[in-house]
Write a structure and sequence with these properties.
two-stranded antiparallel ribbon, binds heme C
Amino acid sequence: MMFASSLCTDSVAEADEIFEYFDDINAYIRSLRSPVYPFAIDAELAAAGEAVFVARCAGCHGTYAPAAAGDDGETYPNLLLPLDVIGTDSTVANAGENYGEMVQWFNESYYGKIVQLEVELPFPGYVAPPLDGVWATAPYLHNGSVPTLAALLESDTRPARWRRVDLDSANYDQSTLGWPFIATPYGQDDAPADQRKFVYDTSKPGHGNGGHTFGDALDAGERAALLEYIKTL
Ligand code: HEC
């Protein structure tokens, strides 16, 4: 919040005023709950999927109570995974090289008198994010390179160049968990001019869709169960 507000603050007096209501914003954010999946869920299949999740995913992503039940008893490991383990596009992680300068800038700024950051990044990587409400947040990975959860869990089905079919938020794909997409026959460079901005081209720097292959070893039944379980988060 400090970083974000420093982009639109013109004076120390204004920063003081904004800082006064940070606690209120924090309290509001803590009160937010992820949306409950609005379509039918096969409870038996989801229970089978929970076992897969606990065995294969929970070590990094934590454990969850059903979205409807609040967050009692949930766990969250908050792990930073090095690039050679996670294998996703390295561009953003490597940008953390300049993190030290950013921390120094922060500590010497107005906000430095309120808190001094001492955070050092041990190695470039990505944090395994909490998955509450993740069914609603396609596309996936930090760069939004994978259009659906089904494709995230089966890496050889991820499209190299794709676009959403439409921008209609009512048109949700319940079988793949994401927005309907089509693989495009063109990338960004050879797309028709009116299509260019809609095409996700994984050959572009920072846009790679590799890595996070933890779903690949599952069989089709386990994967279907896991997807059903993810609807409950
Ligand atoms: C070794 C740790 C690890 C394991 C095991 C793991 N993940 Fe992840 N997961 C991560 C990390 C790290 C990211 C962030 C990667 C990125 O954005 O580049 C991630 C990202 C994700 C995302 C995307 C979140 C988003 O908002 O885009 C989903 C969904 C996900 N994981 C589900 C799973 C599921 C389901 C399993 C079990 C099959 C699993 N993960 C196993 C570490 C792990």
